[in-house]
């Protein structure tokens, strides 16, 4: 059983959903993002999503765009990202780590080499935003060979016929994009989410996590109750951004403030 | 010729999944957009097969756009260069002053068929934005144009034109504030407004079916050129030269000639300060295969797969990618891709103006620069067509600036 499957099974037993926080690699610098990654499980992260910075994140809103830009400025590359996860794995062999990003840096690195190195570093799953199932052939083979889950995004626009195709290539869990929009902008209502889930449940036995627009502890609690997990990204990144100095450097507030917010989210999810 | 008689044709691409050759093109978009891309593909296929759609398009192209555009024998420019006989395909005479309206007219009719009420578009030089704002005025549709903040600065006349036409122009400050960033922002808008919005892409790039669809709408340029050259010279041209940013004017004039191997097709990329200066927009000559804006194509990028900023004096060519069909024509060697620098384009801009009385867009000036460079090396019975994709009124501030003139 993979780390992802183990974690969702354990949470199911515990009777609650997962909290999945997001951080951008090297935002605002390698050391700070590694320290944040290391501190996240203790603060209540059940799984962790790490953003692979890309110059042109066309599905992301301004908050993740800025985080990606800070990460790139601080020298984020895939080798640095793998180094970060290897360092994390020295102390934590249980918390699943998922990479989220765009295809071009992965292709530039080499798809097979990417999957091998990601797997060796201790990464469990991949979300490649601009790689629909129709274009995923090579990646699926490389990922499967290296024991990596390919986590699929499902959107409100995904109709039933397409849902079948999308889920036939999914593993790990399903990421439900709760709004038609970019990250960190608007939020779906609980009613929208309640209405969306039965369709997914009918189509898959995989756990479902909800993302896009989850900002508050209340929203995280609702999403993790309605589905099996809640992804919180832009809300944490904007807190992080708010602690940086004028030159976008970390300050003494950076870690404590982000972790405090994470603890509040976790408390709500666990209540 | 029927389709099944053309199995060896170079004009049959892309395949059903939108690929040209070995994996170029395709559909690389987030899941939220995938169903929309597929719907668009179906809608375009249906329109393409509908004679009523063609009839409507032909009507607007003739009476509104002003087609056909003339094929002009550039006598003084020919005499100046010595060598090849130079013709100009006068796309700058279209309504709104560029080839952009050919595609925009086709897509706006499609958007209407699809029942969309709101149009979003990206623009670089503003030519596509102006064309889009124009048809939105004509058909009373809401129009939102994304334009890089840098381009807003250097293309003020076009920004004002768009506003006069009733469009909302949103400056994009991300990245270098040029066409690439405008494209990202237009895609974000589309994702957020899928229910009523049509994304009107201005070039032969983006996810399938855009590259093929925009090419089809622009192929009227090459079709007319073929007929007109037949009338004037009784044969095919020998060389066709067109400027390449995303590549829509070039694709439009190239495509009808792909199966005529005697016709040399030359795409002129913006070399900026020089192909090896690091400040260039020559995606085919200095880029590598990669994935951005929904397609796999040649992109300017660093060793980590991060897209690098392009540079060109011409806002319309200032893009680090190129349409996937051009990448394919490059890989199979059917078309040649070369560069012209900012300075060469500026010289050609003035040369065309002085010898022919035709002020070309800085984009088109790149094609003139390369054509006039090779013309003297070609025999006097060589027929060379330069695609004058747009007129240069919008560029006079930029040119004045570079010539040290204060207006």
From TrEMBL, chain A:
Instruction: Name the keywords, alphabetized.
Output: Amino-acid biosynthesis, Aromatic amino acid biosynthesis, Lyase, Tryptophan biosynthesis
Group of enzyme by EC: lyase
Picking any one GO molecular function of the record gives: tryptophan synthase activity
| Presence of the UniProt keyword rRNA-binding in the record | no
Instruction: State which Enzyme Commission number(s) the record gives.
Output: 4.2.1.20
Active site at 49, 60
Known catalytic reactions:
(1S,2R)-1-C-(indol-3-yl)glycerol 3-phosphate + L-serine = D-glyceraldehyde 3-phosphate + L-tryptophan + H2O
How does the annotation summarize its subunit structure? Tetramer of two alpha and two beta chains.
- Which named protein is this? Tryptophan synthase alpha chain
Automatic annotation (TrEMBL), chain B:
What are the record keywords, sorted? Amino-acid biosynthesis, Aromatic amino acid biosynthesis, Lyase, Pyridoxal phosphate, Tryptophan biosynthesis
InterPro entries for the chain: Trp_synth_b_CS, Trp_synth_beta, Trp_synth_beta/beta-like, TrpB-like_PALP, TrpB-like_PALP_sf
Q: Would you name any one GO CC term?
A: cytoplasm
Where's the Tryptophan synthase beta chain-like PALP domain?
66-389
Catalysed reaction, written as an equation: (1S,2R)-1-C-(indol-3-yl)glycerol 3-phosphate + L-serine = D-glyceraldehyde 3-phosphate + L-tryptophan + H2O
**UniProt GO MF annotations:** tryptophan synthase activity
Point out residues bearing the modification N6-(pyridoxal phosphate)lysine.
100
* Reported cofactor(s): pyridoxal 5'-phosphate
Top-rank taxon: Bacteria
Query: What PANTHER family does UniProt report for this protein, alphabetically?
Result: TRYPTOPHAN SYNTHASE (PTHR48077:SF3), TRYPTOPHAN SYNTHASE-RELATED (PTHR48077)
- Which NCBIfam families does the entry mention? trpB
Its biological purpose: The beta subunit is responsible for the synthesis of L-tryptophan from indole and L-serine.
User: Quaternary state and partners of this protein?
Assistant: Tetramer of two alpha and two beta chains.
Can you name this protein?
Answer: Tryptophan synthase beta chain
**Organism this protein belongs to:** Acetobacter oeni
Provide the gene name from the record. Answer: trpB
